[in-house]
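Hi R.,

Here's the input for the flavin-adenine dinucleotide complex you asked about:
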Amino acid sequence: MSRAARSVVIRRSTPEIRIVEADACVVGGGISGVTAATLLGRRGRRVVLVDACPWVGGQAVGVPIGTIGGLFSSGPEPYLLTTIFATELLHELTEQDACFYQRSRRARTVNVVYDDVVLMRVFERKLRAAGVQLLLGSVLTDVHRADRQIRALRVATRFGPCEIRARAFVDTSGDAALSWMAGLACRTATFPIYGTQIVIVEGVDYSNVGDPHEVIWEAERVLAEKRQHYGLSREKGVVFPLPSRGMAVLNVTHVATPLDPVAFWEEAAHGRDEGERAFQLLKNEYPEAFGRARIRSMGYPGIRQTRSIVGRYMLTVDDVVAGTRFDDAIARVAWPIELHDTATGYRWEPFPDGHVHYVPLRSLVHAEADNLVAAGRCVDADPYALSSIRVMGPCMAMAAAAAEAIDLYLGGYASVHEVPAAAVQERVRPNIEGQVEWPPEVATRPTLQHRG
Ligand SMILES: Cc1cc2nc3c(=O)[nH]c(=O)nc-3n(C[C@H](O)[C@H](O)[C@H](O)COP(=O)(O)OP(=O)(O)OC[C@H]3O[C@@H](n4cnc5c(N)ncnc54)[C@H](O)[C@@H]3O)c2cc1C
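And here is the predicted structure with flavin-adenine dinucleotide in place:
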């Protein structure tokens, strides 16, 4: 064959649109979307997962958040509050030595610090095994809604536009992007809620201490003492250890996260500068542990709270404080109120040991649509209540309930509003009852005893 015959001239003619059909379309591939899509796929549904980012895992991977919070109860012997999907993740992360069970003194609970690359691969394998079709790098551009039914949505991809037609939709976009684009009612706080530019550091030396927590406590102390010299706005930063990888997660900056494309990236630039200064502070002022460390990644700016759906019920801070056990409860939470409402600090209001509060199914179901359920950080809750339930443990629990509600709806109900809460609860019972100890050896390790 001659060389000239190896290519042909082509030219775009009429705009083509790729059509994809599914039973359910999940918009947002963070921990909520991955959980919902995987569980729906396992129920035998044809599922498409759409995300603007070219990776799965949303903020858990792309920021990366670095720590799963809200999975365990609070008190001297924390147990797992959410088990569906969560125990699989913990098994795989533990097996690959890619996580650390960190005893939080502040929250009197256990956090799971993880390697984000390993978590992303675990997510990918689970989605593939469940038969979920991925449409990554796909930004929502339009939603077609006929009265109370969402029919289809359009996304822009680097390969051209795509239309997804489905019978049901899950909004796990974090910013209620699907509901917003569909013209449905949404809710937003009347004051700014700050995000954070997370910095992942590697090459941290944990060998000089008996307990890795000591490195972290000293790092937090040094940050608080010296932050003004380095121009850091936030008073109290938190640092999480991942000793098996020589890594640490610096959650020490505050950055505004407006829902405006230009303003968002202007603020992000300040966040990145501040993140770098925070790292430099630790390198200079705590060289025993950070002297040979380097920045491994500074990903997408972390967005805490922006826009929520208007559901059939808005969870309130009073419900959270009272621990109201709703008739349609589908998730349990013990995480404190953690509202980042000022540039310098945040409200941190832990609950007494053993306290649990609940998320009702109604807060996941959009009031104005029959085939739409939300999960994760865009469910209906006031800003204070949301600041407690938006952490990753409850996100997985809400997503499990969303998947089951959608599966039941697809099984023959005219509206998700008609799906009996009891039927959903029956399927997610392990998440609302029971006290699973995990893993048994963690509960007895001396480093997990409360100190100070
Ligand atoms: C800085 C910071 C620190 C935190 N620390 C912790 C912690 O230590 N422990 C903990 O458990 N939780 C923590 N959280 C909270 C937690 O990380 C999030 O609330 C949680 O990850 C939310 O998951 P999600 O799946 O609901 O949303 P996200 O992870 O935000 O996923 C939403 C996805 O939707 C996609 N999307 C949005 N809009 C569109 C669109 N228009 N088109 C297509 N796709 C779209 C996004 O690309 C994204 O991937 C923290 C949050 C932040 C910001």
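One thing worth noting: Confidence is low (pLDDT under 50) at residues 443-452.

Cheers,
M.
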